[in-house]
Specification:
Elements: E1 14-19, E2 24-28, E3 34-45, E4 55-60, E5 67-75, E6 78-88, E7 95-100, E8 103-113
Amino acid sequence: MRVDRPAPDGRPRYVLGIEPVSRTVTIGPASGLDVNQIIAGRPVWTGRPPPREPFDCQVQLRAHGEVYACAAWLDADDLLIRLHEPARAVASGQAAVLYDGDTVLGSGTIVATR
């Protein structure tokens, strides 16, 4: 779908979400692209038991991308990640890889953001 007229305030809008089942596209301002919380499914851990309590680490959300300071923990079968500073344009299906310095702690596939 193409929108030929600008938003009422004249500012650009961005796709914030796509829901294929309901055929809904959510649009909004650039600030709506900022993500503070990430839910990742199917977490995998390397050489350590799954954490039940939040712990500080770093997360990389794109190959060769920026690394963000965060707190991470398990909640049922999901990996929850709370970023200390927002990341922009994080999408479902991307990998979230946790690090302690250069050591990989674990990873999961992003299923939702907030």
